[in-house]
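Chain entry —
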Amino acid sequence: MQVDTVAKRKRLNNIYTQVAIEEKWPAATRYDQVSEWTFTCRVQNPSGLSIHDACSFTYLDYAGERITDETDDEDGGVEFDNRLKNADALLGLLDGQRLCSLMKGEKVGKVWAIKDLGNMIQEMQKMEGSDKPVYFVISKWDIVEQSYSLEQIRDRLLEIDEFKNLIKLRNQAKSTVRLIPVSAVGKGFAISQPDGSMKKTGELPKPFQVEVPLACILTDKIKQQIDEILEKHKAEQAKNTAEQAKNTEVKPDIGSFDWLRQLFADGLKVSPQYSGVKSYSGFHK
């Protein structure tokens, strides 16, 4: 994986160093900070040392307050909403500590479910195209899994009407929805404190499944593109059969992979909302 500029690479390395070594955590993203990151996925030739660019994607990072807080930034707000609507996929980041509070029936968890999650779902509903994938990513899984399973978290989320309705509509549209647990630091790196803060233990980070959401986006988009091509050729074949009143075999011409090159020609746009692979690719409750 390679970021688009040297300056951004250094910035990411500095942030990771602060997380791993320093006592304090990096500062949260400010409201006025909206940064765009372009990453290129690279693969190495198994028979040699040459490295080739496979695909690229653009990640839009912003403060969660842009989703939940009232502001007078109308012009910037319109532009920001347009960026979300035109994204190829949405990552909804679910705070693990808030989820634990919700599971316990605590007030802070209920407020999170109504305010943060509610606003997040409303933004997702604005997204252009109901067939675009949505990924709910549970952060701080190293904390959550000490008390709850992924099935328990899923079932509790489905008790929230807004969340359940979103899943239902996406399922009806045959759109991919996944629930993916991740941990940026892994087990044993930090301990939850009574005041809600996280205290570092001195262990080195051991990230868990942080690459899975992006890997799912890549495979889901490719599958979606293949399905669209096959459906198009199926419709064309039916049309030709009806018009010519005879059997006409129309084979999908996907051997050249022109569709794949077109898919990634401009890069994949991804926006966040505020061991095998652990995830749910469908919700049916």
Notes: Residues 2-225+267-273 form a domain with the Rossmann fold fold (CATH 3.40.50). The longest strand covers residues 51-62. Residues 68 and 115 are 7 Å apart (CA to CA).
